[in-house]
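Consider this today:
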Amino acid sequence: MVEIVAFYATHWCSACKRLGNFLEDLGVDVNWIDIDKDKEASEIVIELNNGKRIIPTIVFSDETFLTNPDKNLVLHKLGSSMYDVQQ
Protein backbone atom coordinates (compact mmCIF):
# COMPACT_ATOMS: atom_id res chain seq x y z
CA MET A 1 0.00 0.00 0.00
CA VAL A 2 1.30 3.43 -0.94
CA GLU A 3 1.46 6.08 1.76
CA ILE A 4 2.22 9.78 1.84
CA VAL A 5 5.82 10.37 2.89
CA ALA A 6 5.75 14.17 2.59
CA PHE A 7 3.08 16.77 1.89
CA TYR A 8 5.03 19.88 0.89
CA ALA A 9 2.90 22.97 1.31
CA THR A 10 2.54 26.34 3.01
CA HIS A 11 -0.11 27.51 5.43
CA TRP A 12 -1.11 30.43 3.18
CA CYS A 13 -1.86 28.17 0.19
CA SER A 14 -5.62 27.57 -0.08
CA ALA A 15 -5.21 24.53 -2.38
CA CYS A 16 -2.80 23.01 0.17
CA LYS A 17 -5.24 23.61 3.02
CA ARG A 18 -8.20 22.15 1.13
CA LEU A 19 -6.37 19.00 0.05
CA GLY A 20 -4.59 18.51 3.38
CA ASN A 21 -7.79 18.95 5.39
CA PHE A 22 -9.70 16.66 3.03
CA LEU A 23 -7.13 13.87 3.44
CA GLU A 24 -6.92 14.33 7.21
CA ASP A 25 -10.74 14.18 7.45
CA LEU A 26 -10.55 10.80 5.69
CA GLY A 27 -7.98 9.60 8.22
CA VAL A 28 -5.00 9.76 5.87
CA ASP A 29 -1.75 10.53 7.66
CA VAL A 30 -0.53 13.75 6.05
CA ASN A 31 3.07 14.58 6.86
CA TRP A 32 2.67 18.35 6.29
CA ILE A 33 5.98 20.12 5.70
CA ASP A 34 5.85 23.90 5.43
CA ILE A 35 8.33 24.91 2.73
CA ASP A 36 8.35 28.50 4.02
CA LYS A 37 9.82 27.25 7.30
CA ASP A 38 12.06 24.49 5.94
CA LYS A 39 14.66 25.59 3.38
CA GLU A 40 15.67 22.02 2.55
CA ALA A 41 12.03 21.13 1.86
CA SER A 42 11.70 24.15 -0.42
CA GLU A 43 14.76 22.99 -2.35
CA ILE A 44 13.29 19.49 -2.70
CA VAL A 45 10.08 20.92 -4.16
CA ILE A 46 12.06 23.05 -6.61
CA GLU A 47 14.14 20.04 -7.65
CA LEU A 48 11.12 17.76 -8.12
CA ASN A 49 9.30 20.39 -10.15
CA ASN A 50 12.09 21.27 -12.57
CA GLY A 51 13.00 24.58 -10.96
CA LYS A 52 9.48 25.62 -9.97
CA ARG A 53 8.16 26.02 -6.43
CA ILE A 54 4.77 24.40 -7.01
CA ILE A 55 2.64 23.29 -4.07
CA PRO A 56 1.18 21.11 -2.88
CA THR A 57 3.77 18.56 -3.89
CA ILE A 58 3.10 15.13 -2.42
CA VAL A 59 5.79 12.44 -2.22
CA PHE A 60 4.69 8.82 -1.79
CA SER A 61 6.34 5.76 -0.29
CA ASP A 62 6.85 4.27 -3.77
CA GLU A 63 9.15 7.25 -4.54
CA THR A 64 6.68 8.89 -6.95
CA PHE A 65 5.19 12.33 -6.48
CA LEU A 66 2.25 14.46 -7.56
CA THR A 67 2.21 18.21 -7.96
CA ASN A 68 -0.96 20.19 -7.25
CA PRO A 69 -3.17 17.13 -7.81
CA ASP A 70 -6.91 16.94 -7.43
CA LYS A 71 -8.52 14.86 -4.69
CA ASN A 72 -9.47 11.97 -6.94
CA LEU A 73 -5.94 11.55 -8.27
CA VAL A 74 -4.51 11.42 -4.74
CA LEU A 75 -7.15 8.92 -3.61
CA HIS A 76 -6.46 6.78 -6.66
CA LYS A 77 -2.73 6.88 -5.92
CA LEU A 78 -3.37 5.85 -2.32
CA GLY A 79 -5.41 2.91 -3.57
CA SER A 80 -8.80 4.17 -2.45
CA SER A 81 -11.98 3.01 -4.14
CA MET A 82 -13.39 6.53 -3.78
CA TYR A 83 -12.72 7.81 -7.31
CA ASP A 84 -15.64 10.21 -7.65
CA VAL A 85 -15.20 12.53 -4.69
CA GLN A 86 -16.81 15.93 -5.14
CA GLN A 87 -14.23 18.57 -5.99
Helices lie at 14-25, 39-48, 71-78. The first helix runs from residue 14 to 25. The two ends are 24 Å apart (CA to CA). The chain has three helices and four strands.
